Amino acid sequence: MTEKITMISLWRNDANRKINDRIKHLLEKNREGLRYLWVVGDSTDHTEDILRWTAEYHDNIVVLRYDTMIVGEDLITRWERLSACVNAAFAAVRKEDDYVIVHESDIISPEDIVDKLVNHAREGRCPIAAWPMLGLVFYDVWAYRAYDNDGKLTHFKNNYPYHDVYKPDEPFRVMSCGTLWILHAKDARWIRVVDRAVVEVCDILTTNGAQIWVDPTIIVAQPKDLWESWEWK
Questions:
Q1: What string of H, E and C letters represents the secondary structure of 67-90?
Q2: Distance, CA of 178 to CA of 139 (rounded, Å)
Q3: pTM surpassing 0.90?
Q4: Do residues 217 and 130 touch, judged by C-beta distance below 8 A?
Q5: Phi, psi (degrees; rounded to nearest 5) at 127
Q6: Model confidence over 121-139: pLDDT tens digits?
Q7: CA torsion sign, 76 to 21 to 178 to 43?
Q8: Superfamily name with CATH number, domain 5-225
């Protein structure tokens, strides 16, 4: 059986942020049954034009324009904008899709990332996320959370040992994840979030009984030259 998969990537004002290299990298993941869904919103440069030009040459790319009309560049506003775009993307998931992969558009991942994630899903570990690194430090300390040994829900740390639940060479359970991960399409189709983007998606999933996993052996990279620092509490 060849699963049908929609891979979602979000874009905004990326025309001068190595967009062609990023497009090429995403297209290297192509496989039978895979559709790319590129959501571009609130963008004021030529990002949409570049994406649509690419889509003209690939019958499995869908470019969706979705302007949230949310004004502001602070962290809270950013989360609200991301949440609105996530909703638009999830609403565009096909009825025939088996899985959705969320692949941030600037992340560097293995060429066989789709197969690696799908293999986990086939074995019952879904949702499951990759392990994102920024140079030598763990990257997504906002989205990745789990209960520690004292029963407190805590964020992962940048450096080893990262968290009480961390295991270096086998999948482990978490309460939320991000960056690059797979979930069941049947869940994506009904989930809608307000202001915490992927963390809110994960909270909804776990509230409804899902078990979320991370595979630390699937390492993906956040390029330093495309990274922006955001302070949060």
A1: CCCCCCCCHHHHHHHHHHHHHHHH
A2: 10
A3: yes
A4: no
A5: -70, 150
A6: 999 999 999 999 999 999 9
A7: positive
A8: Spore Coat Polysaccharide Biosynthesis Protein SpsA; Chain A (3.90.550.10)
